[in-house]
Amino acid sequence: MVSISGLGATITGPVPATITFSEDVTGFAANDISVGNGAASAFTGSGKSYTATITPTSNDTAVTVAVAANVAQDAAGNNSQAATQVSASYSKTLGAPGTFTATAGDASVTLGWTAPADSAGTAAHSKHQYRYRAGSGSWSSWTDVPDSDSDSSLADETSLTITGLTNGTQYSFQVRAVNSAGNGTAATATATPTAGVTAPAKPTGFSATAGNGEVSLAWNNPDNSDITGWQYRRKAGGGSYGSWSTISGSSASTTSHTVSGLTNGTVYTFRVTYGLAITEALRERGHGV
Q: Is 282 or 217 the better-scoring residue by pLDDT?
């Protein structure tokens, strides 16, 4: 008799599985473990008991583990029986978005965040959602963060300005990431809109000019003395945006930056930001000599 244990009904990542024979056997190996929607690794054991780590492949899809007959022999040379296949649902929702902030403006609040740290592979998020409430009132319905850069993707949105709020009232805001397994954990922040406070405006006139292994970024001065510095990030071709990079020595009056170390002939897309106001890349440029 052979049994498989350790998976449970639902798993959210790699788990150890134990294969137990009714008596000591030899000849049992890692490739004797059949895994559907996953792989077995870190195989170890001897005698009656063996373990392996089962790593799922595709999110929101069942993982199966089976052991066929005749893969091991007892001391008398008898072949082992087949184990009953076990199945577990692999469903990994995401943790909370990172560095969630809420910056008050005049009758408005600007939200900013980063994608959850565990958003990757088949568990990667497809969009963010937000909701808010005034004081201790009822939460609004969850709403998708809109496609601000018109690139037909909601996954790359990391900021939102909510208008029409009441000055002097404290609001609570939540943002969560959504993937194929469902809704992730929400991050929460609060802010109180105040009359006379102007929310950061997006910089205008953003351009990208190609050079030899570099691109020169430029934008108009937003005339906001509260700006303490600038950041940019980029993506190559149809890939994902990298992390935000601080422009060293930048200040409220900075209006340009050159990004070097790029690959000639590759199309790059850029974004620049100060505070929480992000301008989506207005131009794409392939560059060469």
A: 217
